[in-house]
Amino acid sequence: MHHSRLSTIVIDCDVDDLASAAEFWSRALGKPIASADQDGDGKYAELATAADEPLILLQKVDHPARVHLDIETDDLEAEVARLEALGAHRVDFRERWWVMEAPTGHRFCVVRRQRRVRPARQRMGRIVAGHRSFSAHTAIETCAMYDARPSIYPRIRIEGYLPR
């Protein structure tokens, strides 16, 4: 049995300058830019997301601007066949992924696994700041509210199964 899940929210941008689009969406969504030029070809930019959130990717395109979803899978052909059985159809194969169309007319992509999925018990942890302890998720959200990264707070350390 193969596995699949929502992987990426892709913002297709029909623009000359992807950097300005990345800046807009970074500010609009409150997510810092993780990579202004992901592959070095000026076609992709990525916004920072938490490990349990879908990736947010900006893609420079030559068609009208829109948003589409990527579904990641560990078995590309099996997932495409499953989606076809649900009524979707193949539109085009692009290098490493399938562009498909849902019965509703929405286009989406089926891609290979984008990031490793860790079991829930490995994602658990707690933040220790002085004598107070709270969830890692709360601490990261708090840092994001102040436009900062947890690593710049030397008095905060993450305990548990998270990487040190």
Describe this structure in words.
The protein is of the alpha+beta class. Helix content is 22%, strand content 38%. It contains 4 helices and 11 strands. It has helices at residues 18-29, 76-85, 120-123, 136-145, and strands at 4-13, 33-35, 44-47, 55-60, 66-73, 89-94, 97-101, 107-112, 125-129, 132-135, 156-160. Strands 2-3-4-1-5-8-7-6 form an 8-stranded mixed beta sheet, with helices on one face. Strand 6 (89-94) and strand 7 form a beta hairpin. The longest helix has 12 residues, at 18-29. The protein is globular. The relative contact order is 0.15.
Features of the shown structure:
8-stranded mixed beta sheet, 3-stranded antiparallel beta sheet, single chain, globular, disordered C terminus, alpha+beta, 164 residues, 4 helices
Proportion of residues in extended strands: 35-45%
Number of strands: 11
Low-confidence stretches: 119-164
Q: Helix and strand succession?
A: EHEEEEHEEEHEEHE
Quick one: biggest sheet? 8 strands, mixed
Mean pLDDT: 78
| Rounded radius of gyration (Å) | 18 Å
Instruction: Identify the strand order in the major beta sheet.
Output: 2-3-4-1-5-8-7-6
Question: Globular, elongated, flat, extended or rod-shaped: what is the shape?
Answer: globular
Q: What count of helical segments does DSSP give? A: 4
Q: Portion of residues in helices?
A: 10-25%
- Report how far the terminal alpha carbons are from each other: 33 Å
Find the structural class using helix and strand composition. Answer: alpha+beta
